[in-house]
């Protein structure tokens, strides 16, 4: 297993990567394709997915052979409170239905840490529980915040888990100009689940995970 990298250059590189993803416009069809969970299940080639809580797009990842997913939706709350529920901390385990455990392994400063977490099995356990070790970084972005992460090859893998890998991922959260009590939440996720899995199962799991993420988050913020 690798040793921990120096946090400052890793945080800077991670932020720059996410800002680059964020600069690719929705309408640039050569980059982003709107994505439909139900159509994928029945193997139709065109993708159109508009879930009530979020819209999801995807494009081929530059990091691995899978996809970079983009999700976007409006959340009724202020930016700081939303990000506090997303980043590593006391809130995340309470509401995220996919996450089953989370431990902070190292803390570099208040907005920068290494965490280990596990996820539940998906699709009737076709996708077995996974474990991830991620470097996490939260920083300002425009009038809001960016919380982002990348997996590290660090620490021993727990028994009964497959070690997954998150390539650069992150969530941009900025207040709406005409309604500051609402925020636009945009996520970029590219997760390599690893193991022997059919690509259709991975794609279906990703779409449902992103849709549930927004739904679960909104419910948590109302409590």
Automatic annotation (TrEMBL):
Gene Ontology molecular-function annotations: cholesterol binding; cholesterol transfer activity
The organism's place on the tree of life at top rank: Eukaryota
Single Gene Ontology BP annotation: cholesterol transport involved in cholesterol storage
InterPro entries in alphabetical order: StAR-like, StarD4, START-like_dom_sf, START_lipid-bd_dom
PROSITE patterns: START
Pfam families: START
Cellular component annotations (GO), alphabetically ordered: cytosol; endoplasmic reticulum
Keywords, in A-Z order: Lipid-binding
Residue stretches making up the START domain: 32-223
Protein name (Swiss-Prot/TrEMBL): STAR4 protein
Gene: Stard4
């Amino acid at each position: 297993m690798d040793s921990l990298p120096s946090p400052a250059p890793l945080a800077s590189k991670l932020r720059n990567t996410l800002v680059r993803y964020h600069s690719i416009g929705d309408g640039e069809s050569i980059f982003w394709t709107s994505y439909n969970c139900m159509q994928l299940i029945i193997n139709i080639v065109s993708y159109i997915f508009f879930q009530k809580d979020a819209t999801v797009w995807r494009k081929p990842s530059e990091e691995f052979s899978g996809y970079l997913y983009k999700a976007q939706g409006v959340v009724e709350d202020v930016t700081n409170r939303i990000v506090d529920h997303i980043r590593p901390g006391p809130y995340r385990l309470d509401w995220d239905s996919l996450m089953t455990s989370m431990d902070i392994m190292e803390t570099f400063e208040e907005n920068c840490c290494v965490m280990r977490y596990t996820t539940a099995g998906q699709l009737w356990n076709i996708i077995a529980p996974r474990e991830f070790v991620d470097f996490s970084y939260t920083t300002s972005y425009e009038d809001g915040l960016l919380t982002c992460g990348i997996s590290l090859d660090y620490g021993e893998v727990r028994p009964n888990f497959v070690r997954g890998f998150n390539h650069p991922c992150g969530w941009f959260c900025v207040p709406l100009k005409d309604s500051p009590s609402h925020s636009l939440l945009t996520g970029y996720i590219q997760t390599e689940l690893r193991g022997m899995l059919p690509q259709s199962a991975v794609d279906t799991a990703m779409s449902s995970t992103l849709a549930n993420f927004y739904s679960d988050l909104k419910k948590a913020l109302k409590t």
